[in-house]
Write a structure and sequence with these properties.
Two copies of one chain form a homodimer.
Chain A: H1 10-18, H2 23-33, H3 38-43, H4 51-63, E1 67-71, E2 79-83, H5 85-88, H6 91-104, H7 109-138, H8 149-164
Antiparallel strand pairs in A: 1-2
Chain B binds a DNA duplex (30 and 30 nucleotides) through residues 21, 37-39, 42, 49-55, 58, 75-79.
Chain lengths: 175, 175
DNA sequence: GGCAACCAGTTGCAAATCGCAATCGGTCTG
DNA sequence: CAGACCGATTGCGATTTGCAACTGGTTGCC
């Protein structure tokens, strides 16, 4: 939006786009939670983003070319947000941040399991997941068959929830 | 400082620590510019950080365990900031962000060259540079000898500056 | 010893951003 | 046609940002 770039440094420019507390969380929910509508992003957000901020971030991410928006044929008012290639390639950034967080910060077990698997899988697993995202968001069919990285992460998450969740209400928050 | 964590997600927790426009730039200058004093960080900053914000971010990074501060024996008032292991391990995060930025944003040639080399070098080069940072900041002697990654990046940067800089004042900003 | 330059911050203040709650106009469902 | 659902927008107080000036101290130099 407002252009006065502070410098032409790649790190600075990246921070000017996604260097805030919410943008990457929105992208995280799209990537790992497959949230595609405004309402999904709003109400299933672990961190309770408020609607004006979500609206603002979606607009910024659209302008930055990280997301695209299409009309949902099933509902005239509903929009479907998709990642662009540029957005999909934020996965390694997010994975790297998650790996650092899970190592040094007080991450809960159920929310950390995905980060650990993704770290252990390394760049190869990231690339595989990016191919899956290209299929979901760009319609580019992937080569590999069988269970996806996304499914494997989700299953691992749910196993932790089930194991820890006996009688524990906290564990039933997410789908 | 203020604790009310929004969630125990590794990505969220990482963003709560370094998810702003300045923290990672300070760390970048420490890593790639070897700035160790307040004044160095303040005056050699490409993006012209102001002193109150720098002071605040240094305090936050100290509290987060990413930096440590020691007195400089050569000057009673001078402090020396060093990276902790935790801070050094932010290098892959920064490298990944730089790689993304250099691919998708209007990065200047001289400021992009390091990011490109670091991307081409891959995780192996990052690990090597992290060993160099452990030597500089933690006093842990590294095994490998010969020119360091830091030196190679710096040399490449200066070559671009020299090549592009014929009569161009912009090129003589940094050391 | 005195003075200018340097050091790490701090303070005051205006502007911008954040975050909550309420609300809006339109759309779909029963 | 009523009520739930949809993607936002608005109002407003609290917080954060960014600039400029300043503080209290240290050091080098003549």
């Amino acid at each position: 939006m407002n252009d006065p770039k502070r410098s032409g440094c790649p790190i600075n420019l990246t921070l000017e786009v996604v260097g805030d507390k919410w943008s990457l969380l929105v992208i995280r929910d799209i990537i790992f939670g497959n949230r595609r509508h405004f309402r999904e992003l709003l109400t299933h957000s672990e961190e309770r983003i408020s609607s004006n901020i979500l609206a603002d971030r979606l607009k910024t991410l659209l302008e930055a070319g990280i997301l695209t928006r299409a009309d949902d044929p099933t509902h005239k008012q509903k929009g479907v947000y998709s990642l662009t290639e540029q957005g999909i390639e934020l996965l390694p950034v997010i994975a790297q941040m998650a790996a650092w967080g899970v190592k040094y910060l007080p991450v809960t077990e159920e929310l950390g399991i995905r980060a650990q698997l993704l770290r252990d899988g390394g760049p190869k697993m990231w690339a595989e997941m990016m191919d899956e995202l290209r299929e979901i968001h760009l319609g580019i069919k992937r080569r590999k068959t069988g269970p996806t990285v996304g499914e494997r992460l989700q299953r691992a998450y749910q196993e932790v929830v089930a194991r820890r969740g006996r009688g524990d209400a906290r564990a039933r928050i997410s789908d």
